[in-house]
Design brief:
Distance between the termini: 44 Å
CATH superfamily of the largest domain: Bira Bifunctional Protein, Domain 2
CATH class of the largest domain: Alpha Beta
Strand order of the largest sheet: 1-2-3-7-6-5-4
Radius of gyration: 18 Å
Structural class: alpha+beta
Shape: globular
Number of strands: 12
CATH architecture of the largest domain: 2-Layer Sandwich
Helix content: 25-40%
CATH topology of the largest domain: BirA Bifunctional Protein, domain 2
């Protein structure tokens, strides 16, 4: 990869993780890092293996949405994790990853950072403007009996993008736009992998309670009127399984999936 700030040597020197990134597939360009990581997992890639690309041609987010992935500015990566947990924990893994990404973003920007259920991270602009999306998460897996198979944790983080096109111009931002300076992507990557590893390990070893408690404090739009799918209500929080809890006119509803927006 001919991008100086994503040199393998720089990444290795900065890593402080136990597992994540210790095995690294570094690519100048690919279709989708999640597809690459899934293939690697099926081929026996070790726990913590990371596929990192400078650009993606067919990057995707939740619900099949395309993820804009230009070269030279941002981070597009997928992590192979093999947690010893049952398949029902998968929604909580997504939330744990969100908390890790949020900790990384807040560490660099020093701005309030929130998790938008279930898989986006929002950061407040330096001028106090409304929170904007800076990262997206896509967790995919295949189950193996009572245990999850290899989990592929896909993360797209806008690091140094100077401008966004189309609808993204009104809803997205990057760490550089918030910080007012260009960041070293290897440094951001090392911090990102460390924070995500910490939160996923916390889920595996301590269960979902710490995840739910932390998320409650950082949940975007909590207390506001929202719409998720075709359900409208006041956002109360998440339940122990990671489902979204809404107070509706017909009572409290818990939703396992859906696209969330303000009413």
């Amino acid at each position: 990869m001919a991008v100086d700030d994503l040199a393998r040597e720089s990444i290795a020197r900065l890593l402080a993780t136990q597992r994540y990134g210790r095995s690294l597939d570094l690519r100048a360009r690919t279709g989708s890092t999640n597809d690459d990581a899934r293939a690697a997992a099926e081929g026996g890639a070790p726990d913590g293996h990371v596929v990192l690309a400078d650009a993606q041609d067919t990057g995707r987010g939740a619900l099949g949405h395309a993820w804009s992935s230009p070269a030279g500015t941002d981070l597009y990566l997928s992590i192979v994790d093999r947690p010893a947990v049952p398949p029902r924990v998968l929604p909580q893994i997504t939330l744990a990853v969100g908390l890790g990404v949020a900790d990384c973003v807040q560490g660099f920007t020093q701005r309030p950072t929130l998790v938008k259920w279930p898989n986006d991270v929002l950061v407040s602009a330096a001028d106090g403007a409304a929170h904007r999306k800076c990262a997206g998460i896509l967790v995919e897996t295949t189950s193996s009996g009572a245990q999850l198979g290899a989990v592929v944790i896909g993360i797209g983080l806008d690091v140094n993008r100077a401008a966004f096109e189309g609808d993204l111009a009104e809803t997205a931002t990057s760490l550089a736009q918030v910080c007012g300076r260009t960041l070293d992507r290897a440094e951001v990557l090392a911090r990102l992998l460390l924070e995500v590893e910490r939160w996923v390990d916390r889920l595996v070893h301590a269960g979902g309670a710490p995840i739910v408690a932390a998320l409650t404090e950082r949940l975007a739009w909590r207390g506001e009127r929202v719409v998720c799918g075709d359900v409208m209500g006041d956002l109360l929080g998440v339940d122990a399984g990671g489902g979204l809890r809404l107070a509706t006119t017909s009572g409290v509803r818990t939703l396992a999936a859906g696209s969330l927006r303000r009413a």
